[in-house]
Write a structure and sequence with these properties.
This protein has about 160 residues and is of the alpha+beta class. It folds into two domains: about 10-100, no CATH class; about 110-160, no CATH class. It has helices at about 35-50, 75-80, 95-100, 110-120, 135-145, 155-160; strands at about 10-15, 25-30, 85-90. A three-stranded antiparallel sheet has the order 2-1-3, with helices on one face. The two termini are about 30 Å apart.
Length: about 160
């Protein structure tokens, strides 16, 4: 993704089971600004909406910041931010549409018990071949995701568990 110093994305999303005081509604914002501008922006938003930065009195933290150095992949952050589709941005609409189409809702991507049962029911395929056990388990995990129409895990996710 080409870096854009004047670009912003403001996206409204709903998180099930979180942010009870707003029925899950909250904002995700991606923008680039210097520390002084951020501090002024943050103070104004906190004051106007009476937000708290720490969880207390049964209400969770209401704002936070992730610095540019903490974002490993800016394009993936933009894709994630666009996932609910309720977006205001000064970025080209075609680019926003592309990110939205690449995004996905957080849902039960993987039900571990079902996957384990599925692997157990197919263990004859990899039970006796110790050299390729890991490769065969990965194949079965991918087949499981395809068969039950789950989003496929990334290579990094598969590598994490093997």
């Amino acid at each position: 993704m080409k870096y854009c110093s004047n670009c912003f994305i403001i996206a409204k999303e709903v998180a099930k089971g979180k942010h009870k005081e707003t029925n899950g509604e909250h904002l995700q914002i991606i923008m680039d600004m210097d520390e002084k501008t951020y501090k002024n922006f943050n103070e104004q938003i906190k004051k106007e909406f009476k937000l708290q930065g720490q969880a207390r009195n049964g209400i969770g933290r209401q704002y936070g910041k992730i610095s540019k150095s903490e974002i490993k992949d800016l394009e993936q952050a933009c894709i994630y931010t666009c996932k609910d589709g309720d977006i205001d941005s000064n970025i080209d609409k075609a680019q926003i549409k592309e990110w939205y189409e690449q995004s996905y809702q957080k849902e039960k991507i993987l039900e571990l018990r079902n996957l384990i049962e599925y692997l157990d029911s197919n263990k004859r395929e990899y039970e006796y071949d110790s050299i390729s056990v890991v490769r065969n388990i990965k194949r079965r995990i991918i087949k499981y995701h395809l068969e039950f129409k789950y989003r496929l895990p990334t290579k990094n996710v598969l590598e994490t568990y093997t």
